[in-house]
Write a structure and sequence with these properties.
- The longest helix has 119 residues, at 2-120.
- This protein has 1 helix and no strands.
- The chain has one helix spanning 2-120.
- The chain is mainly alpha-helical.
Length: 121
């Protein structure tokens, strides 16, 4: 009977120890799951923040590009106007000089023709 009693106590101790280990494993698994869930939430939050910052940077870059394009277009238009004015001025001066030269040439030709006419008489 002592042997049976000893075996029963031993079996009961093993069973109780097994129950305790099982609850420790369960608690560890729950804690690990909890920590994993928190880490996933933090990672998700950080990813969302990074995505927002990236979107803001893209918007700022787009705005800066649009502004630069407007300024470039404006500067190009101004340069075209100045080129037009300068070309027009140069054309007027050239026309004036050509007209003067043509008048002088015509006058010289007329004088030469008169001298030739006088010489032929």
């Amino acid at each position: 009977m002592k042997l049976k009693l000893s075996l029963a106590v031993l079996a009961l101790a093993a069973f109780a120890y097994g129950q305790d280990v099982g609850s420790d494993v369960k608690k560890t698994a729950e804690d690990t799951g909890h920590a994993t869930k928190r880490a996933a939430k933090k990672t998700g939050h950080a990813t969302a923040k990074a995505a927002d910052k990236t979107a803001d940077a893209a918007e700022d870059t787009g705005h800066a590009t649009k502004t630069a394009a407007k300024k470039t277009g404006h500067a190009t238009a101004k340069a075209a106007d100045k080129t037009e004015d300068a070309t027009e001025g140069a054309a007027k001066k050239t026309g004036h000089v050509v007209k003067k030269g043509a008048k002088k040439t015509a006058h010289g030709v007329k004088k030469g023709a008169e001298k030739t006419a006088d010489a032929v008489k």
